[in-house]
Amino acid sequence: MIQSDEVADALRNGAPIVALESTIITHGMPWPQNLEVARRVEDTVREGGAVPATIAVIDGTLHVGLTDAQLEDLAQRDGVAKLSRADIAACMATGGTGATTVAATMIGARLAGIDVFATGGIGGVHRGAEDSFDISADLRELSETPVTVVAAGAKAILDLPKTWEVLETLGVPVIAVGQDSIPAFWSAMSPHPAPLRMDRASEIAAAHVMRGAMGLPGGQLVANPIPAPDEIPAEVLAPVIDQALEEAAAQGIAAKAVTPFLLARIFELTEGRSLEANIALVLNNARLAAEIAQEIGVARSAGAPGA
């Protein structure tokens, strides 16, 4: 594992750090917008008082924190693998290059000693999973790896009720920020009640520290709603998602190819509005994650219960 100088200094000095995934760079957006957004997310973390640590596997080595030159190279590379728990070790062992999903980023963060990770939305139970058994490894990772993940809920293309049921079964805390329902990615509100609600970063940080003190496995999902001016109402998105799902089924798209196809098709059907909302929610999550990372440090320094 190689840490960037910025991340290594932060770890040495006990400064707050926020892990960031790299799949959004390689599989989420076209060049050069992917690089521009990656830089904006990192800058947002810095403006929030924390150090960004974008995680990726490059030529067989796990990198925690990328230089700007590495970010630019990754953003332009072809054939970059999409890595989760099942294939990150194989990619490293064979000298490959891969971008980390939520699950793989959590693994990298844990190995580096990073508590907080900001992303757009987690994976979950795909629609039709009762037949396909297509369930993201992100859910099990949340139950096993002690990292607090800040996201705008699960991606709205998923079967959200089943996703929340699986997380409940796995014992993963799902914390809605400032509201009583779980946000639905591009939409701030949903009909799904939040199991937990917290209104301040300090509360989320205290819960993270307490879980560690109790020896509880797994992390927390912090469901942070997209800002109201940037959201796409659920009633507008529903028919668009249904159309994209029907097209994916008709074309026989499955497994890891499903999510990139759906997101690209929804981008087309919303005339780019979904990507604009995606960028807004990622930046919003980066801001909150930086605050939580700082508050975890405060809690530990103050000797808070469980610290």
Automatic annotation (TrEMBL):
Cofactor binding description: Binds 1 Mn(2+) ion per subunit.
Source domain of life: Bacteria
Record Pfam families: Indigoidine_A
GO-annotated cellular components: cytoplasm
Residues the entry annotates as binding Mn(2+): 134
EC number: 4.2.1.70
Molecular function as annotated in GO: hydrolase activity, acting on glycosyl bonds; metal ion binding; pseudouridylate synthase activity
Gene Ontology biological-process annotations: nucleobase catabolic process
Cofactor: Mn(2+)
Reactions performed catalytically: D-ribose 5-phosphate + uracil = psi-UMP + H2O
Binding locations of substrate: 82, 102, 136-138
Active site, UniProt feature: 21, 155
Keyword hit for Manganese: yes
UniProt entry keywords in alphabetical sequence: Glycosidase, Hydrolase, Lyase, Manganese, Metal-binding
Cited InterPro entries: Indigdn_synthA-like (IPR022830), PsuG (IPR007342)
HAMAP family: PsiMP_glycosidase (MF_01876)
Role: Catalyzes the reversible cleavage of pseudouridine 5'-phosphate (PsiMP) to ribose 5-phosphate and uracil. Functions biologically in the cleavage direction, as part of a pseudouridine degradation pathway.
Subunit organization: Homotrimer.
Family membership noted in the UniProt record: Belongs to the pseudouridine-5'-phosphate glycosidase family.
Cited PANTHER family: CARBOHYDRATE KINASE PFKB DOMAIN-CONTAINING PROTEIN, ZGC:136858
UniProt name for this protein: Pseudouridine-5'-phosphate glycosidase
Gene: psuG
